[in-house]
């Protein structure tokens, strides 16, 4: 187990305080990161319906998933065997049956007192059909939207979580180095991806890497204008910019890191854009401290790049931590106008202020933890490769 | 572009025939594989809401996504620029706004004639909140469940799709070889994962690899009883079984492949179990041909392993093709009791009949394409490493 049972119980306690405030006697959790956060459960099983259910009046939550995955829950979670509920394989990708029918029948038999339950209405792995199934089978329960309830509890990390994120940051450094070493005129972008992925999974001699929630993003050349392109097997040309966005991952905890480099001598537009982005990052990192609002952090960035004649209309960062594909972001605080979240010690962010012009884009990022009087980076990697 | 515009138009035509039969004048598609199948769009952007919308009366569908990803849609899809609709970054992971508001307003302004629309109620990336948003903003439209409508069109592959899957099969061979070479007494499982991932992404000298929809699954030792465990950084012990389930991926097309091997001499239970699984696979592959039902294929397997004293209560395979995380399965036909789907030429399946006992599990798989009179494997890799 990644954490002591005490730490899991503390997390649950915080979730229950929030449930009580919202008048929820049950919480149906589909987000695999939230499932992991409360129970330790870890497996690539989120492609079939599964849940963790927390009842306000019970100490221990229930895991519900495919029968085939009960052994995985036994191996990775702290839950007692009688709290592992399952459905048979005939429910998997069936056109006529839904796994939530099985959960509903169990709720019907054992939890008839539940009146008001939260569900994660915007989670990736909670479908409209799953909701309808719960609502129609448990029609005496009022289901309300509790999306992000657990995510918000996740925002402030424990010291052990920070330790894992620093390990992830170390892996990110190694992966970025592998990527930068592989970017050469004539190299195929897919081989850069392969070198990065190898470093991500192998980790260090002391600890191995876990799979990040997002594969390496490697737009090269003109494709740098499209930030979520993965890679091609085209060869890198001299002077081509290559964006490398990746994360180190340890025990599902992430430390993302992005750099933009060139094979050979960079052009003038690239240098100017990089200089502006780096100055913006440095301004932010110099001033970040507890008590600031997320929108104030973004404003520092805007003011800096405005002096270089640029503006950027997308958010420049977001809260990070434990996660699963397709995203390492926590979906809570964002560094952007209007976000009034106040920074507190042990919050962790990915500061990723890319600028994309029509002909090319530059992304340079840092992951940081808010400390008592400033911030600390999770990785140590030069931002200035082109100088 | 991976396919000619003509091939995309043919796919659309088939989708429209099905829409007409179901009385749908619009289809809102959230599944990234379906979006790719109809438009070519490819990017790691499915962590934010996005859609392809097909209107029965219009030749060309619309792509709808984040403004930041429009360039990616320009680069990878065949759609005209005026068919790329977008929303601003203030809608991304916002607590008060939803991207589907923007799409709804556009539908309201331009598509007021639409009466009945299909949505994918069980797609990974279509949330209850997204549905509610469409339903409340476009309240004159009846939204009905059209989950799998496009997936079913995808089942029979074109010759070009088969060609891509054979390339994926070649990558799977190389990745499996890298994995088998790395499994040694004292090696860390994460380093086996790293070697596999490197081979998957690097591909061959002639063509690079794409990221598979699932990371390598590498349960080792006693963890082989839990099929969806990814990996640890523990060292492999002598005699430990290691399951290697992976896929080669080319242009988002998959060829999955699983083997179970041991570091050093395998034990008796392992050998017996492997022998039964292999015999079951061979029986199936010898007899698969067009005209058989999926459930009949499964029955052949059950009959064979029953002679060894085993039975398995989960499905032994499923339809495969183009896909994105978290799953490479198409969610249409499954090789299991009750599935009446009739095999036709150019259907493609992953036959993965694992058996998991309490102390260990064995998974051995093949991906095959149904031919005019039998089947052809996508990869060529020995099943008998322990003999």
UniProtKB/TrEMBL annotation, chains A, B:
Question: Pfam families in the record, alphabetically?
Answer: Creatinase_N, Peptidase_M24
Q: Which InterPro entries match?
A: Creatin/AminoP/Spt16_N (IPR029149), Creatinase/aminopeptidase-like (IPR036005), Creatinase_N (IPR000587), Pept_M24 (IPR000994), Peptidase_M24B (IPR050659)
Q: Where is the Creatinase N-terminal domain?
A: 11-156
Where does the record place the Peptidase M24 domain?
165-371
Entry protein name: M24 family metallopeptidase
């Amino acid at each position: 187990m990644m954490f002591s049972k005490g730490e899991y119980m503390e997390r649950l306690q915080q979730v229950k305080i929030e449930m009580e405030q919202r008048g929820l006697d049950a919480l149906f959790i589909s987000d695999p990161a939230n499932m992991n956060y409360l129970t330790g459960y870890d497996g690539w099983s989120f492609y079939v319906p599964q849940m963790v259910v927390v009842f306000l009046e019970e100490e221990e939550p229930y895991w519900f998933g495919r029968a085939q995955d009960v052994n995985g829950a036994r191996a990775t979670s702290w839950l007692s065997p009688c709290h592992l509920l399952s459905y048979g394989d005939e429910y998997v990708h069936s056109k006529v049956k839904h796994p939530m029918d099985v959960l509903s029948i169990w709720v019907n038999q054992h939890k008839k007192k539940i009146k008001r339950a939260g569900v994660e209405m915007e989670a990736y792995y909670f479908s409209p059909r799953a909701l309808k199934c719960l609502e129609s089978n448990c029609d005496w329960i009022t289901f309300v939207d509790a999306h992000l309830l657990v995510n918000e509890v996740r925002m402030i990390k424990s010291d052990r979580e920070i330790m894992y994120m620093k390990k992830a940051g170390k892996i990110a450094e190694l992966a970025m180095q592998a990527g930068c070493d592989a970017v050469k005129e004539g190299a195929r972008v897919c081989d850069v991806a392969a070198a990065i992925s190898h470093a991500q999974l192998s980790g260090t001699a002391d600890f191995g890497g876990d799979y990040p929630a997002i594969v390496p993003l490697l737009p090269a050349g003109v494709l740098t204008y499209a930030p979520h392109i993965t890679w091609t097997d085209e060869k890198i040309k001299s002077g081509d910019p290559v964006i490398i966005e990746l994360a180190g991952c340890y025990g599902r905890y992430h430390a993302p890191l992005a750099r933009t480099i060139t094979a050979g001598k960079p052009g003038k537009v690239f240098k100017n854009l990089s200089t502006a982005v780096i100055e913006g990052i440095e301004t932010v990192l110099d001033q970040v401290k507890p008590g600031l609002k997320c929108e104030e952090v973004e404003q520092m960035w805007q003011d800096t790049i405005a002096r270089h004649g640029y503006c950027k209309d997308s958010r420049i960062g977001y809260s990070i931590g434990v996660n699963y594909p397709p995203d390492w972001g926590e979906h809570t605080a964002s560094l952007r106008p209007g976000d009034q979240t106040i920074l507190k010690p042990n919050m962790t962010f990915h500061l990723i202020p890319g600028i994309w012009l029509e002909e090319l884009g530059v992304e340079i990022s840092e992951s940081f933890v808010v400390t008592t009087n400033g911030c600390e980076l999770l990785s140590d990697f030069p931002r200035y490769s082109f100088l």
